[in-house]
Amino acid sequence: MMKNKGFLDENIDVILSTLRMPLKSIDLPVLTISPLLTSQDIQKINYMLKES
Fold it and tell me: SS3 helix, strand, coil % of the chain, rounded to 5?
């Protein structure tokens, strides 16, 4: 994972996950969403993308 840190920092704004899992090795926001995408999830995604 550390070899790709530069790539991740440059190309990824947010990680979407259906599982709560802390990623301590990278400094990226992780947004936990439902496996069946809800309107609330879509709002959270839009907010995160506008902030980044």
Answer: 45, 10, 45
Do the beta carbons of residue 32 and residue 48 sit within 8 Å? no
What is the distance between the alpha carbons of residues 50 and 25, in angstroms, rounded to a whole number? 24
Q: What is the pLDDT of residues 5-40, one digit of tens each?
A: 788 778 888 889 999 877 777 788 889 999 999 999
Do 30 and 46 touch, CB atoms closer than 8 A?
Answer: no
Alpha carbon distance 9, 5 (integer Å)? 6
Q: How far apart are CA 19 and CA 34, in angstroms?
A: 9
Q: What is the pLDDT of residue 24?
A: 74
